[in-house]
Amino acid sequence: MNSYHSAANRNDPAAEPPATVQLLANEQTRQCPYCNEQISVNARKCWRCHEYFSLPLDDLDDRAYQFARREVLQDCVLDIKKWITRLGCGSLVAVAIVALLGLLRFQDVLEEMVADRVAQTAGPVLEDTQEKLDASDEVLDDVEDKIRLAQHRISQFDWLQSKLSETETAVLQIEDARQGLESRAEKLADQFGQMEHRFISAKRELRHDREQRLEDMLGSFANDVVTVEKLNSALEQAGTPVSHQLVEALAPLKRSQIDLISPRSLSTDHPAVLFSPTARLKWQFGRHAIGKVKYQVQFDTQPDFRSKHAQQAITRLTNHELPVDFPHGPVYWRVDALSDDGQVIATSSVGNFEFYSDSIDRIRQTGIVRVGVTYSSQGEFAYYDEQQRQLTGYDIELARWLAAHLLPDTPDVQPVFHNYDWRQLLKSVGRNEVDFLISTITITPEREEEFGLNFSQPYYKTSQAFVVLKKGGFRTGSSLLGRRLAVQSGTSSEMVAEAFTEPENLSRSTNVDESFDALMRGRVDAIVTDYDFAQGHVRTLGDAAAIIAVQETDFPEDYTGIRSEEYGIAVAKPEAYLLTRINNAIASASRSNVLESLKLQFVMNNPKVGPRATKVTKLAMPPLDKPGGLNPLRR
């Protein structure tokens, strides 16, 4: 055997390999993948290129044993050769002794040596292999867990797929039902259209029959009634001086047959107000068809039609639009019907109205801002002072301050207050009767939607309260649950009152004075109103009344309405520029401590404190029960 495999050379990587290595008999071989040398299939290192190989894990134990056994046998053969050499090649005794010793102990020695060699060489490899096997088992366990999870997910996906299929089926059924309903709706619409057509036809026939009968009745009646035309004809036939005077006196009555339709004013003192770039005039002349009569329209800024802005137009229509360059402000107009030769055959009365581009344009031209309020005989926000004969209070003085600071280029703007009951107050701004509203109006989206309002930023914050008589013994808001309550109709306090008592125990009034009268007469147990609003009224009653603030714990559990309130100024929705001006003025009043001063003066009852003096126009306000509730000095 080559000496390269001796014990000295096996651990010496610098030793030169022999030209060839002797292999065991019947030992399987393979080629080295690096140098193509024939080596044992169990070898872990090539004897020529010294490259190591990794063995398959399944055959590692057996191959390590074979490799160790081969090395031990090679060492034993070398030892036997040495002993034979020492004893002499011809010594049969030595050969016999060696053979005998080999027969006796060779097998045991061989097994022990092989075991030792396996433990030395294959032990670390086996431990490392075992660790790798353990790690592989853990990896396999993880893989199995992931496989089971994937199988679970696949089962869930199959379940979701089935549910999706069921949902698609249901959607298709719903779509079919919808199409069926649509077809039925179309059939019903067709039937309704046919019924509507029949109804219109029957209504038209009925109206035609009624008109025909009415014309027949009027025709017979006209033959028996003395008309202006008949009287005029009889006087002309008389030919006397008196009859001629009567004919001249009847001439205006004969011609006044044209009705002015739009714009229509309630009276000369209360003209209609339009906010538009221009205005269209409309009238009606009896039963004359459009185009059959020629009309002369006159319009001017003065009622005598003699100013430099006086204009007139000829048309065969029953409407006419003012020129774009016609000045904004008061407008007076009338219409004459002309015959073919230009004679006036009918005339109208003189109509008047005002038109501007918006509220700011009207305020700037007139120097007056119209303010809608609801006042009472007492209180702190808006009341009529009999001694001073003028309105005053927190809201009134704030409106005067805002009017003076609304337009920086027009500092002399004066407010004109118009008194309304509560429900009419919220409607007045939409009818262009006032420019804005200020009367402790709580900001709510419902009011903006119902009355077409836009609210300014809040200028005052308060909460709800009960006003009670001290002799009643009520101390908390919860003690008034289910009691007899009074509230002003249409206010935010009405919602709170409805939450505290039953409808049969709730008394609604048009103004707060009626509620206080009911309290003092014992018809109700308490009044629901704003806390700060109640202070002025309670102050006039002295020790007889008290205020109970509504706490959060007093409200019923199912109550979802307002709990605290913010007052705002209301304008009509189209008046965005006016609202911006009002918001700027409120912000200026807050920075100047005007709001705090007004609260100290009127709400806290400190007359020595007040905002900076503002020029005020004293107006005699009408009582609440006056028809319309409007200021007689209104433009």
Low-confidence stretches: 1-17, 606-635
Q: In terms of structural class, how would the helical and strand content be classed?
A: alpha+beta
Q: Kindly give the count of domains.
A: 4
Helix content: 40-55%
| Number of helical stretches of at least 4 residues | 14
Q: End-to-end span in angstroms?
A: 137 Å
- The rough form would be described as elongated
Q: What would you report as the Rg, rounded to the nearest angstrom?
A: 57 Å
What is the makeup of the main sheet? 6 strands, mixed
Number of strands: 24
Q: Look at the structure and give the mean pLDDT.
A: 77
State which percent range the strand residues make up.
15-25%
Account of the protein in words:
The strands form seven sheets. Strands 4, 6, 7, 9, 10 and 11 form a six-stranded mixed β-sheet that branches. Strands 18, 19, 20, 21, 22 and 23 form a six-stranded mixed β-sheet that branches. The chain has a three-stranded antiparallel β-sheet with strand order 3-5-8, with no helix packed on it. Strand 13 (383-385) and strand 14 form a beta hairpin. The chain contains 14 helices and 24 strands. The chain is of the alpha+beta class. The model is unreliable at 1-17 and 606-635 (pLDDT under 50). It has four domains: 3-157, no CATH class; 256-357, Sandwich (Immunoglobulin-like), CATH 2.60.40; 365-457 and 568-629, Periplasmic binding protein-like II (D-Maltodextrin-Binding Protein, domain 2, 3-Layer(aba) Sandwich); 462-565, D-Maltodextrin-Binding Protein, domain 2 (3-Layer(aba) Sandwich), CATH 3.40.190.10.
